[in-house]
Design a protein that fits this description.
mainly alpha, two-stranded antiparallel ribbon
Length: 339
């Protein structure tokens, strides 16, 4: 009996190891597949283009990762992007400095994140419902400000985004900086460790004296700031803010985080290499389908399949973790020396 249990535990641990390595496995498989379908896909210039295009989604996904680690979700990030970009665009059209427009953009994101956190912590409304409501409200507010008209931005902003120090686009440096800060925050600060603790077991964390509400406020404010920064990076590349700006980006952000190994149930995940790999996977699929000349109407189906695979992997991973915990508990409480 004990030998059977030992074999079961070893098998589950092996499968769990494979599931935890799934981002690396998927990355290698997709790179190989698209490389075979189109040799141009593996050229350094193409890979650098993918990294540049992935930068703003990656910044967005970093903020989403922090929220998911607390077992929450932020569906409003797409609307935050639109609203923050609208604020920045209006200021730039009035010839204000780029630095002032960026500051106002980030402040808008922080304020919106604080609003989300207020309703979640003050009224104990589940994050899904709160951020779904603010998703709609944010989009409506942005449309009311612009009267559903697009904003054309000055050339100075596009010139800034065209900078390529050492041959690498400036957006990639911004993405790398956000990843570095978030990784250091999660690994080296008490608040970062609190995020994991609250995601794993909120009741136990509160009994241990952790301030759950303060932590929730922090992650949603950071998520809002990341969404605003992602918006600024994106509009600097596009040169325009249109009424559909940011729509659906929350799904890509969630998919990137979950593909990178962040659990929808909280407490498990990392920004690097996790979310970075997930972001590259999302962009690789989008770009690879174009290089492979897949029908434009089929592409959303393939992207949806990738998201479904990510969710299934997360579900399987958490199921195995729960089973291993139960077996460990049974082994701990068993009578010593018993067969």
């Amino acid at each position: 009996m004990r030998e059977t249990n030992r074999r079961g535990i070893l098998r589950d641990r092996f499968v769990l190891g494979v599931l935890r390595s799934s981002p690396f496995i998927l990355f290698a498989l997709l790179l190989l597949t698209f490389g075979l379908l189109s040799p141009r896909f593996l050229q350094p210039s193409t890979l650098l283009l993918i990294l540049n295009q992935a930068s703003y989604i990656g910044i967005l996904a970093v903020g989403m990762t922090l929220v998911l680690l607390t077992a929450g979700i932020d569906l409003s990030v797409g609307s935050i992007m639109y609203l923050a970009a609208t604020v920045a665009g209006l200021l730039l059209q009035r010839d204000l400095p780029i630095a002032a427009a960026l500051a106002a953009c980030l402040a808008t994101g922080a304020l919106y994140g604080a609003v989300n956190a207020f309703f979640i912590t003050r009224f104990n409304v589940i994050p899904f419902v709160v951020t779904l409501a603010t998703l709609i409200a944010g989009r409506g507010l942005g449309l009311a400000i612009t009267r559903s008209e697009g904003l054309t931005l000055p050339n100075s902003l596009f010139t800034l985004s065209s900078l390529r120090p050492f041959g690498v686009p400036i957006a990639v440096y911004v993405f790398a900086g956000v990843v570095l800060l978030a990784t250091l925050f999660l690994q080296l600060t008490p608040l970062g460790r609190h995020i994991y603790a609250i995601g794993n077991d909120p009741d136990a964390a509160e009994k241990a004296g952790l301030n759950r509400k303060r932590t929730i406020v922090a992650v949603y404010v950071v998520s809002g700031v990341c969404a605003a920064l992602a918006a600024f990076v994106s509009i600097s590349q596009l040169g325009i803010v249109n009424p559909s700006f940011g729509e659906g980006e929350e799904l890509d952000a969630v998919a990137a985080a979950v593909l990178g190994g962040t659990s929808l149930f909280g407490g498990v995940g990392s920004v690097f290499p996790g979310t970075v790999l997930g972001t590259l996977l999302i962009q690789m699929v989008q770009s690879g389908l174009v290089f492979a000349r897949v029908d434009i109407f089929i592409q959303p189906l393939v992207q949806a399949l990738v998201i479904l695979v990510a969710v299934l992997i997360d579900s399987a991973r958490n199921g195995l973790l729960a089973r291993l915990r139960r077996r460990t508990i049974r082994k701990t409480v068993s009578v010593p020396g018993g067969d």
